[in-house]
Amino acid sequence: MSIELRDVSKRFGNVNAVRNVSFSVKDGELMALLGPSGGGKTTVLRMIAGLEMPTAGDVFIRGQRVNDLSVQQRNIGFVFQNYALFKNMNVLKNIAFGLKIKKWKPADSQARIAELLKLFGLEGLEKRYPHQLSGGQRQRVAIARALAPKPSVLLLDEPFGAVDAKIRQELREWLVTLHHDLNVTTIFVTHDQEEAMEVANRIVIFSGGILEQVGAPREVYEQPANEFVARFIGVMNVLELEVRDGLARINELEFPTHGLNEGQKLRIGFRPYAVQISSDLTQYRYHGVLRRTFFLGVMLRVELELPSGLVIRARMSKEEYAHQGLENGREISFQIRQYRVLARDQAALPPENVLTYQPPPLAGENI
Amino acid sequence: MALKRFHPLPGFGLTMGFTLFYLSAIVLIPFAGLVLRACELSWRDFWHLATTDRALAAYELTFGASLVAAVVNAVFGALLAWVLVRYEFPGRRFIDAIVDFPFALPTAVAGLTLSSLFAGNGWLGRYLVPLGIKGAFTPLGVVIALTFVGLPFVVRTLQPVLQNLEREVEEASATLGAGRLRTFVSVIAPSMMPALMTGFALAFARAIGEYGSIVFISGNIPYKTEIAPYLIVMRLEEYDYRGAIALAVVLLIFSFLLLGAINLLEQWSSKFQH
Amino acid sequence: MAGLPKAQRHAGFKKSQRGTEEPAFVKWVLILIALAFCAVFLFLPLLNVFAQALTKGWAYYWASLTHPDSWAAIRLTLLVAAISVPLNVVFGLAAAWAIAKFDFRGKPLLITLIDLPFSVSPVVAGLMFVVLFGLQGFFGPWLDAHELKIIFAVPGIVLATVFITFPFVARELIPVMQATGTEQEQAALTLGASGWQTFWHVTLPSVKWGLIYGVILCNARAMGEFGAVSVVSGHITGLTDTLPLRVEKLYNEYNAPAAFAVASLLALLALLTLGLKTALEWKQAWEHERAQRADAPISAEETLRANDTTA
Question: Are residues C205 and C87 part of one domain?
Answer without folding.
Answer: yes
